[in-house]
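Team,

Forwarding the record for the chain on the shared tracking sheet. I've put the sequence and predicted structure together so nobody has to dig through attachments.
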Amino acid sequence: MPDPPPYPTDRDELERVCEVSALRRGGPGGQHQNRRETAVRLHHPPSGLVIVVNEQRSQHQNRELAFERLVEKLEALNHVPRKRRATRVPRGAKEKRLRKKKQRSERKAGRRQPLDE
């Protein structure tokens, strides 16, 4: 799987690249919310992310929240997990495991009824 492309997360770059649109959404704020276009939709074309925020009565506050959430999502997309280094099981650990298995086997064998010969 190829590495994900690094997406810049600085605010100036995001404002230049993103498509911002205002829309009407219901929610807290009553008539003020319903009559004004206070919700904000951010579309980030390079990553395909769309963020919609309508939690505040103010379009400006919703816009700030939307950019904060976009930055969080882009940072998560930019994260590349470290590669796993293959290791082997030490000989002592293998011997210990086999010794424990043998002890458990003998304990269970001691619970069996003796065979009548």
